[in-house]
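Q: What changes when magnesium ion is included in the input?
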Amino acid sequence: MNLCVGLTGGIGCGKSTAAKLFQELGAFIIDTDEIAHRLTRADGRAIDAIRAAFGDRYIAEDGSMDRAGMRELIFSDGLAKRRLESLLHPMILDSAQAQLRQAEGSPYVVMVVPLLLGSPGFLRLVQRILVVDCDESRQVERVRQRSQLSEHEVRAIMAQQVGRMEGLRGAHDVIHNNGDLAGLAKQVAELHNIYSALCRNNGD
Ligand SMILES: Nc1ncnc2c1ncn2[C@@H]1O[C@H](COP(=O)(O)OP(=O)(O)OP(=O)(O)O)[C@@H](O)[C@H]1O
Ligand SMILES: [Mg+2]
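A: The predicted holo structure follows.
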């Protein structure tokens, strides 16, 4: 099996941007946000289970999950959040494992998992943990620019995530994404060299 690096970090820290840079260097990317999105669109495998658990109210006209409605619900209702997670996580894990099997032949895999540190199933799939970190003020600013959420809403999401310091302690590697895109790309290139060397050694 080739090297699988779990890429994680708080909302808006730059996970997707870093993953894209790894991809340009030849890494195979598995993106669990994308998997979750696919599962919850109109023809998605999770729709029947979501309808059964939450009712038609959370299914939009077009048959996909009502994302805004669901976001609002799980924001204020911890039980609903856990119910949605326990329904989606096994499907996401399944799909990620299937993609991992397709990655055979790629030098290494970068698996983007926002909640990696709290997910034993995903931790079992990765040999190395990479955390993308940035200052909280930058995090708030980047998420706000992208999503129209208020500072209050962004901070509430941040508060629900694994603490920043706790996340850093769990990491083998850290990207500090406080600078510009060139600074991010440079760190990605350095890690790419390390990961490429690691999987060369594995292959011997
Ligand atoms: N070094 C950087 N310089 C400038 N902008 C950046 C940098 N890194 C990321 N961004 C911008 O910040 C925003 C958040 O980045 P990105 O989407 O990669 O984060 P993420 O961790 O994947 O977020 P999410 O948790 O929501 O999936 C994006 O609009 C991205 O273009
Ligand atoms: Mg992302």
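Observations recorded in class: Residues 41-105 form one domain.
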